[in-house]
Design a protein that fits this description.
- By secondary structure, the protein is an all-alpha fold.
- Helix content is 80%, strand content 0%.
- It contains four helices and no strands.
- The chain is flat and about 50 Å long.
- The two termini are 25 Å apart.
- 24% of the residues are buried.
Length: 124
């Protein structure tokens, strides 16, 4: 692991900590049931916080799977997968707030994201 990898991990975790502070502020000061903007802002903040939290963990999983060798494109893959996690988290929060969340919808979204990620992850 090179110093740039450590710095990227630390920067991403600091960004995640900042996003969690934003989530805390939104959750404690706004009511998502009365304000549509608060619901959307909360969902986006939760999605960003969860996504940024998972990026370093996803990169470390890739790093350990590659026998502790950092290959080119590993960070791009980790950020892309973190983006998927952020999108799914925000979507699930919004669906739950709109009382439209159900198991078939959740499974459909997860399968679509899995297929999209499998398609993008193919080594050419």
């Amino acid at each position: 692991m090179e110093p740039r990898d450590r710095l990227t991990n630390i920067a991403t975790l600091l960004g995640a900590a900042l996003a969690w502070v934003v989530v805390l502020i939104i959750v404690t000061t706004q009511d998502p049931r009365t304000s549509g903007q608060a619901a959307f802002a909360g969902a986006v903040a939760i999605g960003a916080a969860v996504g940024l939290t998972t990026v370093p963990l996803l990169w470390l999983a890739i790093f350990s799977r590659h026998a502790r060798i950092a290959y080119r494109g590993d960070w791009i893959r980790a950020f892309r997968r973190g983006g998927w996690v952020a999108f799914v988290s925000a979507l699930f929060v919004l669906l739950r707030l709109e009382q439209a969340f159900s198991l078939p919808i959740a499974l459909f979204v997860l399968v679509i994201v899995g297929v999209a990620e499998a398609t993008l992850s193919v080594d050419r």
